[in-house]
Specification:
Layout (H helix, E strand, L loop, with lengths): L8 H13 L4 E3 L12 E11 L5 E11 L2 H19 L7 E15 L7 E13 L2
Parallel strand pairs: 1-2
Antiparallel strand pairs: 2-3, 3-5, 4-5
């Protein structure tokens, strides 16, 4: 049996979103130093969670969208929100089974110090375990 926490949730969500959003959107875990050259960018970060000590992992995942306008950031965040809840929940990938997936904090405008960008983010709770 695979160890608890053996599913790399960041990598899982990054790869899954990149497939759905296409080549025109950068999906990554860390921001590039020249973020303005890579818009739109989606940042996926596991910010906490817990597990059952046996097999099930519960990750809290922040997903931030960076875009040139607030409207574009909101639209992309809404697309991601719908895809997570409508497609990723209850699915199986080559490495993980995703069970319950819910919204902790719905997508909303978040502050960002660069006024040439807009940031919209949400936090999700994702339950997963390795494929057996």
């Amino acid at each position: 049996m695979a160890a608890v926490g053996s599913v790399d949730v960041e990598l899982l969500v990054i790869g899954w979103l990149q497939q759905r959003l296409g080549d025109g959107v950068v999906v990554r875990d860390e921001l590039d130093n020249n973020l303005l050259a890579e818009l739109p960018t989606v940042q996926v970060t596991v910010v906490g969670g817990d597990d059952d000590g046996l097999r099930l992992d519960r990750a809290l995942v922040d997903i931030d969208v960076y875009h040139s306008t607030r409207a574009q950031a909101i639209a992309l965040a809404a697309t991601i929100h719908g895809a997570l809840l409508g497609e990723l929940r209850g699915s199986t990938t080559s490495t993980a089974v995703v069970g319950r997936l819910g919204t902790v904090s719905r997508p909303a405008a978040r502050p960002y110090e660069n006024t040439a960008l807009r940031r919209v983010g949400g936090t999700y709770e994702l339950f997963s375990h390795p494929v057996s």
